[in-house]
Amino acid sequence: MFTGIIESIGSIRALTPKGGDVRVHVETGKLDLSDVKLGDSIAVNGVCLTAVELPGNGFAADVSRETLDCTAMNDLKSGSPVNLEKALTPTTRLGGHLVSGHVDGVGEVVARTENARAVEFRIRAPKELAKYIAHKGSITVDGTSLTVNAVDGAEFMLTIIPHTLSETIMASYQPGRRVNLEVDLLARYLERLLLGDKAAESDSSQRPAGSNITESFLAANGYLKS
To answer: Residue limits of the Lumazine-binding domain (predicted)?
Structure first.
């Protein structure tokens, strides 16, 4: 588990094909690896990876074909900057929100607007994730815990302050950029809970009309406050 508070901007040193998938070598910059051992988890742009090598100036991890297909990891190349966060510990401050490091889908930056010293981004999520994104709710973008400032269908707005721009890779975002998205875990669990007894049925039988739990549905049932 992670908090979505980025600890360092690292960079991809190499992507090496290995037995049908890829081994990624990451230089970790200012990230303190003194307490990291083989088998520990490190989030790279929001993707939870397992350290299999610790050469001293970074780490290496194996990236499965499933992960490559379901995230924006395929867009990375040697030299690409990446957001890094070590897994949380029992004494870690939860400054963001609980993040699993399991990407739910790939979104796209569709607009960037300067607003005083901040930058506003409009991001389009996959349609199947739209129901989990709520105004003033939390979302993880490339591993960064952020607050949703507005929602319009499958698109949502973020306002990024200067500190976040300087401590993450978001300063480089331009329209067309693909980003890893992880929705709030609570929204996932809430959807499952609201299925009630139907949760024990197979997917085909429990979703004849789709599990269309929307922000308006949650508000009408007292789960959101205006």
So the answer is: 1-97, 98-194
DSSP string, 183-202: E-HHHHHHHHHHTGGGGGS-
Would you call 6 helix, strand, or coil by DSSP? coil
| Domain residue ranges of the chain, discontinuous segments joined by + | 8-86, 105-183, 186-220
Beta bridge partners of 182: 140
CATH code that applies to domain 105-183:
2.40.30.20
Average pLDDT on 80-100 reads 90
Q: How far apart are CA 57 and CA 174, in angstroms?
A: 29
Structure-block tokens of residue 125: 């999520």
Q: What are 168-208's pLDDT values in tens digits?
A: 999 999 999 999 999 998 888 888 888 888 888 876 544 43
Q: At 170, phi and psi to the nearest 5?
A: -65, -25
Entry pTM: 0.86
Instruction: Please tell me whether residue 180 adopts helix, strand or coil conformation.
Output: strand
The Cα–Cα gap between 88 and 73 comes to 22
With a CB cutoff of 8 Å and minimum separation 6, the contacts of 84 are 6, 7, 8, 9, 10, 26, 28, 29, 31, 42, 43, 44, 143
Q: Is CATH 2.40.30.20 what the domain over 8-86 is classified as, yes or no?
A: yes
Burial, 212: exposed, middle or buried (Cβ in 10 Å; 0-12, 13-18, 19+)? Answer: exposed
| Token pair belonging to 156 | 């949502």
Q: Do domains 8-86 and 105-183 have the same CATH topology?
A: yes
